[in-house]
Amino acid sequence: MTNPANTQSAGNGAAGRIFFLDLAGSRVLSANPDGSDLKTIVIEKGHELPDGLVVDLSARHLYWTHMGNPSANDGSIVRSDLDGQNLKTIVPKGGTFTPKQLQIEKKSKKLYWCDREGMRVMRANLDGSNIETLVDTSKGDPRPGPDATKWCVGIAVDVEGGKFYWTQKGADNAEKGRIFRANVAIPPGETPANRRDVEVVYDKLPEPIDLEIDPATRTLYWTDRGDPPRGNTVNRAPLDSPSGKRKEPEIIFSHLMEGIGLALDHKGGRMTRQEHISQRIELADGRKLTPPVRGRLSP
Question: What is the pTM of this model?
Answer without folding.
Answer: 0.89
